[in-house]
């Protein structure tokens, strides 16, 4: 057992677990990277740490400074934790449509939370643009800019992909996950391709996002909608630029919920983004064939969605079938 020298060193080096249900369904070996075991309970802790330390190295973030970011929630939680450990304040701008649990967590961590109406990226009131303006108006502040700050991607090139390669003993046939900022899929993809060009990198895209059509047909075009938080993108961010995407899948919320339910039967409580990732991993396993070894990301804990994904009334209001145990 390892004793860590400080709390920030707890970020990363998450376990990898073989998932029985997805493996059986696909005929492949499906593994999940347990990112809910980071201190902030999500994969976004990695980007948060790299973004803050990159700003420190560049002299942009001074003692007593403030970190400002626009986020669906998890990156904000990671930034708040890193900021607390390093003595910085955090101001987090979030769409008011995100789960109450994320809002409550940010407040509990001492972050200043600014809620804005959900809006398209072209709207000046979009949470990303709002956070940039607040950073510009706040003395001794940085804008984390997770979508276009490639320190995000670097966290996965140097961290996540190296861990996966070591844990899989250099035998990886495919990797897939959804894109929010694009940092995870681009960073892991670039890192694994450096190890073995034959590794297939697949985008798993929710409905309502534009990347499936971009990688399949060269056109940024969204179709449908999704209630999944933190994933889905309508533009090529700096983190996505140059991502080595070999193939792509479009996954519905209903498909994702099937796997959320099945993973509960394996003792895992996850969010919808993870369910969508698993559906993509099953599709990739079927494409690559029996015995192929596929890795995906278990993004965060389902306990962050008790008022939404695990709430019967909310699911019904979104036209989704509640999990059977929610009728109790």
The count of β-strands is 10
Rg calculated over all Cα atoms: 19 Å
Low-confidence stretches: none
Q: In DSSP terms, counting alpha (H) and pi (I) runs of 4 or more, how many helices?
A: 11
The H/E string reads EHEHEHEHEHEHEHEHEHHEH
Query: Strand order across the biggest sheet?
Result: 1-2-10-7-8-9
In terms of DSSP E residues, the strand content is 15-25%
Which quaternary structure do these chains form? single chain
Structural classification: alpha/beta
**Overall morphology:** globular
Helix fraction by DSSP (H/I, runs of at least 4): 25-40%
Describe the main β-sheet briefly. 6 strands, mixed
Give the N-terminus to C-terminus distance in angstroms: 41 Å
Give the rounded overall mean pLDDT.
97
In short:
This protein has 328 residues and is an alpha/beta fold. 38% of the residues lie in helices and 16% in strands. It has helices at residues 20-26, 44-57, 74-86, 100-108, 127-137, 151-167, 183-195, 211-217, 253-264, 272-288, 312-317; strands spanning 16-18, 29-34, 66-70, 89-95, 112-116, 141-143, 174-177, 200-206, 247-251, 293-298.
Would you give an account of this structure?
Keywords: Amino-acid biosynthesis, Pyridoxal phosphate, Transferase, Transit peptide. By secondary structure, the chain is of the alpha/beta class. Helices cover 38% and strands 16% of the residues. The protein contains eleven helices and ten strands. It has helices at residues 20-26, 44-57, 74-86, 100-108, 127-137, 151-167, 183-195, 211-217, 253-264, 272-288, 312-317; strands spanning 16-18, 29-34, 66-70, 89-95, 112-116, 141-143, 174-177, 200-206, 247-251, 293-298. The strands form two sheets. Strands 1-2-10-7-8-9 form a six-stranded mixed sheet, with helices on both faces. β4, α4 (100-108) and β5 form a beta-alpha-beta unit.
